[in-house]
Amino acid sequence: MEREGAGPATRTGAVMDAIRRRIATRALLSGDRLPSIRGLAAAMRVSPSTVVEAYDRLAAEGLIRARPGSGFFVSDAAVPLVLATAPDPVERAIDPFWVSRQSLDAGPEIARPGCGWLPPDWMPVGALRRAARSLSRAPDAVLTDYGPVRGCLRLRAHLARRFAAEGLNAGPDDILLTGSGTQSLDLVCRLLLRPGDTVLVDDPCYFNFRAILAAHRVAVVGVPMTAAGPDTDRFAEIAAAHRPRLYLTNSALHNPTGATLIAPVAHRVLVLCARHDITVVEDEVFADFEPEPSVRLAVLGGSQRAVRIGSFSKTLSASVRCGYVAARRDWIEGLIDIQVATSFGGLAPMAAEIVHSVLADGSYRKHMEALRRRLAYARREIGDRLENLGYRPFLRPRGGFTLWCEVPGPGGAASLARAALERGVVLAPGEVFSVSGEAGRFMRFNVAQMGEALVFEVLAEGAAAAESVPDARATLSSPG
């Protein structure tokens, strides 16, 4: 893969690659002196300034080091550029990291209908550019200093007003800004969980929930998800049998199913959580995609029973990371200490300024209004096309960009995902979302990432191949 900003297409990149090759093949060993700047410039027919830039970049990488007055030398800790061949992505085990790794590493030539974010041309890039330009007028401390431990007060106050409008009583000091929604969840887990504890999640659930909980070495139990929220009968049975410490969920436009929690289910869940001393952690990262707000566990349960986490990665920018936690005051104090210990401070001031600027000037509201309309059309169009191919939606969501569909034929989603990856298409098979492993016949589709003809070509081929394979269940049950 070409190195960003210093690829072999540039003279500087060519010099850097030549030095890397000499080190990798041990033509230059640790402690050896590199050719002089003028000597290498003459040998490679480039200017001395090009060699200077190449040496400076290699020194910044730690591959070489400068000795004033003596020249440049190979670092003692120098290693070959490539130590081992990465495993074939297609052959990698399909686990909670599978979709993330394929989606994040995919180049622009790869189609990503399985990823969990919107394409750049669906995001408010103009508003982000204006906000970024305004940083040139910001105080020097915004550009150079650490932020306050709770994060930017203006942004926390803005969030507090938003929360109050929906009935959540959380003042600015009850809110902690973090580097991302994922970091918010990690901090909450560090505060409230110990290895061996049990956490209840929806089945299926967001696959990174499973990855984070595995990192915290806790047991994970799934409760079946319905179109109206978790199955409360099973919730009651699991709560009594496993005594989970936390219940982790998306109640607004559930990921991956798109389901919306309804009030009777929400009340029943909170009653059960109170009875069994279970804390609710409610991730509302998709809440702003709703046409109208749905019921929230954090609002009904209050800060003593529920923790709200979220971010703007899905709606504003995944590059300008900004997450938050709203919880009872003593827990916020504990979360602050953990965040200081693990990252020395809260949300970066520059990120806070950009996010607050877009939220406060009306740009975000207008962006979301237009985005909800655009997604409503995409869900209808893509949902119809998928259904015509035999991919049946679990439900038609009220908002958001995901469709949870049953795949045609007996082969399952994993085999389809592997075949698609060989064609340059990243899909999200149901296995990565399911604690029980019972979602193997489902696939999550991102309707905003399905504009390329190749995506439907691959899906049509998968459906056609599925039709040609006899269903083993039918074969086993047939007479004779």
The amount of beta strand, in percent, is 5-15%
Number of strand elements: 14
Helix fraction? 40-55%
Rg, rounded, reads: 26 Å
Q: Biggest sheet, in brief?
A: 8 strands, mixed
Give the name of the CATH architecture of the largest domain.
3-Layer(aba) Sandwich
Strand order of the largest sheet: 3-10-9-8-7-4-5-6
Termini Cα gap: 56 Å
Please describe the structure with a list of short key phrases separated by commas or semicolons.
480 residues, alpha/beta, Arc Repressor Mutant, subunit A, Aspartate Aminotransferase, domain 1, Aspartate Aminotransferase, domain 2, 3 domains, eight-stranded mixed β-sheet, four-stranded antiparallel β-sheet, 13% strand, disordered N terminus, disordered C terminus
Describe the structure concisely.
The protein has 480 residues and is α/β, with parallel strands linked by helices. It is 43% helix and 13% strand.
Helices and strands in order:
Blueprint: H1 11-24, H2 37-44, H3 48-61, E1 64-67, E2 71-74, H4 98-105, H5 125-134, H6 140-144, H7 153-165, E3 175-178, H8 181-192, E4 198-203, H9 207-215, E5 219-226, E6 229-230, H10 232-242, E7 246-249, H11 263-276, E8 279-283, H12 297-301, E9 306-311, E10 323-326, H13 329-343, H14 349-360, H15 363-389, E11 392-393, E12 402-406, H16 413-422, E13 428-429, E14 442-446, H17 453-467, H18 472-477
Parallel strand pairs: 4-5, 4-7, 7-8, 8-9
Antiparallel strand pairs: 1-2, 3-10, 5-6, 9-10, 11-12, 12-14, 13-14
